[in-house]
From TrEMBL:
<dbReference type="GO" id="GO:0030246">
    <property type="term" value="F:carbohydrate binding"/>
</dbReference>
<dbReference type="InterPro" id="IPR004682">
    <property type="entry name" value="TRAP_DctP"/>
</dbReference>
<protein>
    <submittedName>
        <fullName>TRAP dicarboxylate transporter, DctP subunit</fullName>
    </submittedName>
</protein>
<feature type="signal peptide">
    <location>
        <begin position="1"/>
        <end position="25"/>
    </location>
</feature>
<keyword id="KW-0732">Signal</keyword>
<dbReference type="Pfam" id="PF03480">
    <property type="entry name" value="DctP"/>
</dbReference>
<dbReference type="GO" id="GO:0055085">
    <property type="term" value="P:transmembrane transport"/>
</dbReference>
<dbReference type="InterPro" id="IPR038404">
    <property type="entry name" value="TRAP_DctP_sf"/>
</dbReference>
<dbReference type="InterPro" id="IPR018389">
    <property type="entry name" value="DctP_fam"/>
</dbReference>
<dbReference type="GO" id="GO:0030288">
    <property type="term" value="C:outer membrane-bounded periplasmic space"/>
</dbReference>
Length: 337
């Protein structure tokens, strides 16, 4: 009696080795999804996270419940990434720059002055090389779904308006915990200090650091204008955000569940990019109203800064490899036409 049964079971297992553990491809189960992010609820990041949760609920008849956790309440980007890898948290959105320690290829997006328009960034990030870099996460236990926009970064500080390269001298500047950012601002002559974003407001408030760099949207939503006097429009780099999922958890989802999350992440991306651009367009006037002193940098001085940053660009090449770097450059050039 036992033998044939065993034979049947063995045969069944050979035909579909995962049948015993995986859910049906079209099944949607009741699941709770913790989605963490670092900015406030009232930010471009928070608004898009909310929309993502609503879209997932809609598409799954409420079976997939996304619970959003803003203001780094589940931890800094780094801490959340570890939680995703370990399977203790399902999803997050954060800077690609904070992933460089996990997947070195992500450093390619930190290349100073890589993109000159947001649309150019969209084309490259949503194109084949953007996907290729994202797929590198999988071997590290993360699944990248889509890129959202953090935006072009600009500088704030309390020491002086930055009008030329020499003005960086002695400014204690918080940078993202990432070697390219650290190098770039050291080369500028600043005293660059790596710090997680979740500690930034307090560091500025207590004057542990003099300045920081982030898109207008974040300077506004994180209320940096309360603790920063000068804002210099540098647009020195375009920062993407990336929506990531715990691979350990993702692999246990059905095809339908994965599709629902992917489609909602794309909808939230399209909404988020538009929302971010609209907000950025009016943010400067608002920041001026809040009392910030704003200056632009003379193009000749920007050129000097670019030249000064050249060794940091070489470091990106060394980190990600010449081939990937060239491919990104080529796609950026194509998208600029
Ligand atoms: C930074 C980043 C952050 C984002 C956010 C927490 O300065 O630009 O604003 O990573 O997701 O650390």
């Amino acid at each position: 009696m036992k033998r044939p049964l065993l034979a049947i079971l063995t045969a069944a297992m050979l035909c579909s080795p995962l049948a015993a553990v995986s859910v049906h491809a079209d099944e949607v189960r009741s699941r709770m999804i913790r989605f963490g992010y670092g900015l406030n609820e009232n930010s471009n990041q928070g608004r898009a996270a909310k929309l993502f949760a609503e879209e997932v609920a809609k598409a799954s008849d409420g079976k997939l419940k996304v619970r959003t956790f803003g203001a780094a309440s589940l931890g800094s980007d780094d801490q959340m990434q570890s939680a995703l890898i370990g399977g203790a948290q399902e999803m997050m959105v954060g800077s690609t720059a904070t992933l460089v320690g996990i997947t070195k290829e992500m450093a390619v997006w930190d290349t100073p002055f890589l993109f000159s328009s947001a649309e150019q960034a969209d084309a490259v990030l949503d194109g084949p090389v953007g996907r290729q870099v994202m797929d590198k996460l999988e071997e590290k236990g993360l699944v990248g779904l889509v890129y959202w926009e953090n935006g072009f970064r600009n500088l704030t500080n309390n020491t002086r308006p930055i009008t030329r390269l020499e003005d960086f001298s002695g400014v204690k500047l918080r940078v993202m915990p990432n070697p390219v950012f650290l190098d770039t601002f050291k080369l500028m002559g600043a005293n660059a200090v790596p710090l997680p974003f979740s500690e930034l407001f307090t560091a500025l408030e207590t004057k542990a650091v003099d300045g920081q760099e982030n898109p207008f949207n974040t300077i506004l939503s994180s209320k940096f204008y309360e603790v920063q006097k000068y804002l210099t429009v540098t647009n020195h780099v375009y920062s993407p955000w990336i929506v990531t999922v715990s691979k350990r958890w993702w692999d246990g989802l059905s095809q339908t569940e994965q599709n629902i999350l992917m489609e909602a992440a794309k909808k939230a991306r399209d909404f988020e990019r538009q929302d971010t651009r609209e907000e950025a367009a009016r943010a400067l006037a608002e920041l001026k109203d809040k009392g910030m002193q704003i200056n632009e940098v003379d193009p000749a001085e920007v050129q000097r800064m670019r030249e000064q940053a050249a060794p940091a660009i070489q470091k990106v090449v060394d980190t990600v490899g010449q081939q990937l770097f060239d491919q990104v450059q080529a796609e950026a050039e194509k998208a600029a036409l």
